[in-house]
DNA sequence: CATGAATGAGATTTCATTCAT
DNA sequence: AATGAATGAAATCTCATTCAT
């Protein structure tokens, strides 16, 4: 089982039962969309790469856009996953007694996720500006939910005196920005530079802790 | 003279003399490219928006891609501009005795630039991943030059004991990331949210100062 | 079954199975190319004449030039056919004991061929000077092979004392030139003049025999 | 003065006074037309090669076709020249007492002409099939006149008992065909093969003499 | 005379989508 | 379900020609 396969399995398999061809179509589409962008990818190219007939794509997805959405929607769901924990506070109290632990856990978790789902994330990032539906979905289902949770988390640690007293949304913006900045630079802009991941992640955490944390 | 006009004037006029139609083509192309992306914009659409025959576009730009490059290249040049100062140290010594002043000046300068050249920056950001030539140009002409300058600036302030002692490239990555993060969130992702720019910028500077600066 | 149909059947059908539309495209292309030349024929014109959507042409031939090559290549093959006989000498010994018989047979055979494939030959002759690929193909696959065979044939009859003793390549040049000259004048330059084919062919054979043969 | 220049001078200069630019246009057009064909040559290409503005071409020639005609017409005139001699019989009686001398003189003269005007002849040969006006002109002004003259010449030598007794038009067809065949093979189809011109011409003359002449 | 920007008709080519098999 | 030929609208690009300067 290839890396790609596992990705597909993880993201797509559990929802519906996908035929073999359908999986191949999705894999091919992810590959092309992430590399050339949605608009610059032709369905015939996807068909060829997937080893299916052109018509087969349209048997499963009414339009090309449907195919994009069929890829992006589950990606968003997964992106959201770690933030959708029911008893968040309990988790925080028991697992991450202080902010730094939480930050570290979150960053590491998301870095792993990013590494595994790089093409999918690229598609997400690159296509959102051009498709209002995506933008809306992203805003409605991701941003809001993550934001709400994260506001609570921030307040939680602010109450504990571990985060400086600025509006939670600023904390969130600066945190996410810093993490996304690392991921984009690392995996999208300069994937070929030689990175010492451990060092960079540590530096990033230290930077965030100094910028946002209170240490006595 | 419209806002757009002044942008064009600034960015494109001084290099070559552009005909009236050529200016209109550039304005229309910027508009469409930034809104729908390069691949999803048709030349006929640009021609119509510019009030020009489609053939006219191809008289000035041999291909559609040439048009993109003709827009992006000068943008890169301008993006680079503030970092290309000859006597950098003198400027630093006299104008920005401490890091915070420099940071503040730079951020404000780039925020103004971003506000004015938003569509151009959108095009730049959105198209770089899809066009290796752009990526190369960007890397060669922008990143390297800015990086070199900025390494020196960082070392300058590190010697003065105003920046913590970590590798300059980490300082740079974290700084640029934080600033870009602000700009992208502010102007590209959520331009319609209600932002209190002054507060956010101040928060960003404070965050950077805490994260990177040494204050005694 | 029309005349055209049989031509296509003969030349194109046996290689691959062509769809009905593809045949129509080929017939239309041959018609237009031979009449107006490749460069002056538009694909839309071919599509219209073939009763096919323009896109259909490009489904079968990636470019307009491919269409030309798809027509010309099999023509070359057929042109070559009569010269590709395995046991050439046996044929000569049994069927054509003397040079005149051979000459007569060859001329008649090629005249029939020319009459039947006139448009294709026109295309071949007219386009070869403009397309290096064609020229190369023609040289490599036709000229060389025909030439080699023909040198042997010439030597065969020279040994029998039926052809004058000059270099074989001169014999060949003069023979082909004379035959081609007749065909081009007859069918391409002045197809509408009133020709007495039998007389002309007989005169041509007599001319060649006097010019090249030895009769005791 | 270049070779090209002399060609132009000879063919075009004496008729009208041509400006410097006009000459350049003609030279460029001859070059491109002969190499790529009329239909595949763009006026802008000619303008560029000639070093003039696109508009300049149309100042001198109303249409692209006019340019072609402006090149081809004088070529035809020159092609005809040697046959337009008033007192043909006197010339024949005094200069060329026998057919072989005449043949030799004519071939040599036309070979020289062909060598010097190769591109022009290529254009003539290649474009005639596609332009009815050219065909008509060629037929009316060249073929007929040459034919008429040549019928008389043939009859002249037939009366003298030097040419076999077949219809003059057959003599003409076979003669021209043989000469053209040599020229086309020599200069158009295989200009790069190594030719021994003297030998080939001599062989051609001998061939014609054997095929058509009477030697006692 | 000369220029070259501008045009718009048309050429080649691409592509999402349909449909008969 | 799958195929792939066919479509026609639209995309990119070319080009002969015009015209203001």
Strand and helix layout:
The structure is a homotetramer of 216-residue chains.
Chain A: H1 3-13, H2 20-36, H3 43-50, H4 54-60, H5 64-80, H6 88-95, H7 99-116, H8 118-127, H9 132-159, H10 168-189, H11 197-212
Helix pairs in contact in A: 2-3, 2-8, 3-4, 5-8, 5-9, 9-10, 10-11
The structure holds a DNA duplex (21 and 21 nucleotides).
How is this structure best described in words?
4 copies of one chain form a homotetramer. Chain A is mainly α and 216 residues long. Chain A folds into 2 domains: 3-61, Orthogonal Bundle (Arc Repressor Mutant, subunit A), CATH 1.10.10.60; 69-212, Tetracycline Repressor, domain 2, CATH 1.10.357. Chain A has helices spanning 3-13, 20-36, 43-50, 54-60, 64-80, 88-95, 99-116, 118-127, 132-159, 168-189, 197-212. In chain A, helix 10 packs antiparallel against helix 11 (197-212). Chains in contact: A-B, C-D. Chain A binds chain B through residues 36-37, 39-40, 122, 126, 129-130, 166, 170, 173-174, 176-178, 180-182, 185, 188-189, 200, 203-204, 207-208, 210-212, and chain B through 36-37, 39-40, 122, 126, 128-130, 166, 170, 173-174, 176-178, 180-182, 185, 188, 200, 203-204, 207-208, 210-212. Chain B binds a DNA duplex (21 and 21 nucleotides) through helix 4. Chains A, B, C, D: It comes from Cytobacillus depressus.
